[in-house]
Amino acid sequence: MRRLSFLLSFVLACLCVPAVRADIDPTWTTQVTPFRITDNLYYVGSQDLASFLVVTPKGNILINANLESSPPQIRASVEKLGFKWADTKILLNGQAHSDHMGGAAAVILETHAKNMVMDGDVETTEAGGAKGFQANWHFDTRFPPAHVDRVLHDGSKVTLGGVTLVAHKTPGHTRGCTTWTMRAHLPGEPAGLLRNVVIAGGASFWSEYHFVARPGVPESYPGIAKDFEHTFAVLHALPCDVFLGEHGKYFDLETKLKRYPKEGPEVFVDPVGYQAFVTNAEKTFDAALAKQTAEAAGAKH
Q1: Could you give the CA distance from residue 122 to residue 131 in angstroms, rounded to a whole number?
Q2: Does residue 158 contact residue 164 with C-beta atoms inside 8 Å?
Q3: Is residue 251 within 8 Å of 273, Cβ to Cβ?
Q4: Are 173 and 202 in contact (CB under 8 A)?
């Protein structure tokens, strides 16, 4: 009955919500030719909304279903690579926002994949964005609700066909924001050489995020500043060779794709770029936290 209720909610949402909003960033919906990153990891997303396919002998893992309108584009990319959409056995994600989770219900309905979500984002996922600290923000946070089959925790391992991904809870951007890591071999490199792959979860924020309580304006949620600080510590500590992320702009996909035809997957070996991404995000957060702290202190006098 529970799953039936989610299917009914999905159908109603599809009837009530237009497939593509006029204000959607075009880089979120413009398809790119899918490509290989490691022996078993492929990019199947759009210009900026990243979606990854992990291929195993026992079926495949999809990371990010993206917008509500994205599943046909992702499916087309998967099939262009020669893989079967129905072989998608597990659906993972990096954050419970409509631009990463909007297509989850459709993917689950079409493939029967098991949906695995980090604790902290489960409530938002199953409520289609109608619950959680961002539910009432002025921009669109809603998406078709998706049933969660497995609740993940920091350090949880997702294994299929001999391939293991590790979920790192990196909260703040959402309460269950997740960074994924795996070990993989790059085509053309010496046999036995495995690279550390990092798919970075969101580390950004907007003006609606409140890190410090002040009169009439509470924290976005209790401990949000500590969560961001924890996230930056975790991200800095992760060993990274192959740098990927929830958005193409995180890892400079546009520039690297121009180099890809000549250099191949090696263009994504970018540990320096990864640390720069984390450092820049941390500096932006520190500045915002200092500003909000000063404003809160001033409001008390």
Answers
A1: 10
A2: yes
A3: yes
A4: yes
Cα gap 61→104, rounded to integer Å: 13
13-17, 85-89, 192-196: least confidently modelled range: 13-17
Structure tokens given for 254: 């546009």
Nearest to 109 by CA among 7, 256, 1, 214: 7
Answer yes or no: are the C-beta atoms of 215 and 295 closer than 8 Å: no
Tokens of 193: 């050489």
Tokens 């996922």 -> residue: 125
For the chain, the residue count is 301
What are the pLDDT digits (tens) for 74-123?
999 999 999 999 999 999 999 999 999 999 999 999 999 999 999 999 99
Distance (Å, whole) CA 202 – CA 284: 13
